[in-house]
Amino acid sequence: MIYKDDPALIRSFLEDTSNIKTGHTPGVYFPESIEDVSELLRENAGTGKRFVISGNGTGTTGGRIPFGDLVIAMEKLDRIDAPLQRNGDQAVMTVKAGVLLEDVQKKAESSGWLYPPDPTEKLCFIGSTIANNSSGARTYKYGPTRDHIARITVVLAGGDILDIPRGKYRAGKDGMFRIDLALTGRLEFNVPGYTLPLTSKHNAGYYSSDGMDLIDLFIGSEGTLGVIVEADLLLVPAPEKTISCLVYFPSLDDLFDFVQKAKRKTGGVDPGALEFFDPNSLDFIRRVYTEVPEETAGAVYFEQETTMDKEDEQLEAWFELMESSNALTEESWVALDADEQRAMKAFRHELPAQVNEWIGTQPESKISTDMAVPDDAFAELYHFYRSTCEKHGFRYIIFGHIGNSHVHLNILPSSHDEFKTAKALYRDFVKKAVDLGGTLSAEHGIGKLKAGYLVSMFGDEGIREMARIKKAFDPNLVLNIGNLIPEHYYRAC
């Protein structure tokens, strides 16, 4: 076990991409094995010391930032095993929590497999993606991280090492979990009684369903219930080929029509990803890619997995769909080979690069949403975002995962007054999404930055249910305090 307390050496653990700048810590532990994590927590049980679990600093919600807590850095837990085939169409890869997502994907692909979860940030730790139930563009086809986890190993706050294969621990008919632990004895708690929103992506609060699997409680729990140290990842066969395309549209109605038709999956059209760029997003990208057409109401990026035999037929189906929705077909960009698809990927990633460059010249940081709604409510949320921003004269962009009715609004303030106005309006955006049956967070999680908004979704009693579960696993309130659950709710349960 390595420990560092030199301020110069541990400064990087006081930040992530949330722009929170007030973190502080006495020091950082670097466990080199699962046993190191267990020993650290066991020896400090009952001492009053608190710990924050640190991923690689790519989170957006301040989850890893300590406020006087000690830090457990996961980067030394970086072993990655070769894929083991289970049957003809599935393999398993065992990884430690500090492995980079990028390395997982490369290892899988080198053996002819695909690990489907694809957050934009590839330098995140795989343990963090599980703790955050991360998702990305391919979530439209494959679902979030939760759907690709066969087993996890978790170290609990008292030092117990709990191995959780999917299917081993399920809630009883009475809604109770009963688990016997070697160090802390029997643990009993109820499944949360609240219902989750009817969205295809959701990452806000503890998972709940009748007869649920214990593994699903930990996935998306943001490190508040235990330290995820190892996992078995489910892999699928890598596609033989992929069709990628960026399609421009002359009107928003045409664009929305195209998306709705694509989601019907008829005539050979079967998208694996559907991503959206509004005109303001394209303005940023146009700084580098001058060929982006000027007269466009937005663009959709799509992917479809295919084979050599079916590629031409499926490409023709997409062209017919584009024509039926008045797409600017001549100006659109089709990528069929690996080099062209890498170039298209660079195009897509130019948006955050250009936005961050612009923000770097401004006195304030951006205000970002991460909300999703049921499909039939998407247009209403989009127009609410847009009209609100136009009313206040904000500079803004709207982009993201339109296939899952989940797009990000980024307000880009040019003054402190604009920042304060946008920050105040965030509650209006939350209320609108929740009123439409949506979720506060579809993929980025809650962390510390959004914990105060969670009651808008679940009410006081729902948050108290989460606090009771947290205290069942962590009665001394040791792990990731301040993440997800506002601290005052612990006193009320």
Report on this model:
Helix 8 (279-285) packs across helix 10. The chain is an alpha+beta fold and 493 residues long. The mean pLDDT is 94. It has a 7-stranded antiparallel β-sheet. The protein has a domain at 84-237 and 468-483: 2-Layer Sandwich (Uridine Diphospho-n-acetylenolpyruvylglucosamine Reductase, domain 3). The radius of gyration is 23 Å and the shape is globular. It is built from 13 helices and 19 strands. It has helices at 7-10, 34-43, 101-110, 126-131, 139-142, 214-218, 252-263, 279-285, 311-324, 338-359, 378-392, 416-435, 455-473; strands spanning 2-4, 28-30, 51-54, 70-73, 84-87, 90-96, 113-114, 149-155, 161-165, 176-181, 185-190, 227-237, 241-249, 273-277, 298-306, 333-335, 367-368, 396-401, 406-411.
> Structural class of the helix and strand makeup?
alpha+beta
Proportion of residues in helical segments: 25-40%
Tell me what portion of residues adopts beta-strand conformation: 15-25%
What is the rounded distance between the termini?
36 Å
Which CATH C-level class of the domain at 84-237 and 468-483 is it?
Alpha Beta
Unreliable runs, pLDDT <50, ≥5 residues? none
So what's the oligomer here? single chain
Radius of gyration: 23 Å
Which of globular, elongated, flat, extended, rod-shaped describes the shape?
Answer: globular
Q: Total strand count, please?
A: 19
CATH topology of the domain at 84-237 and 468-483: Uridine Diphospho-n-acetylenolpyruvylglucosamine Reductase, domain 3
- What would the average pLDDT be, to the nearest integer? 94
How are the strands of the biggest sheet laid out side by side? 16-13-15-14-18-19-17
The helix count comes to: 13
The major beta sheet can be summarized as:
7 strands, antiparallel
Please give the CATH architecture of the domain at 84-237 and 468-483: 2-Layer Sandwich
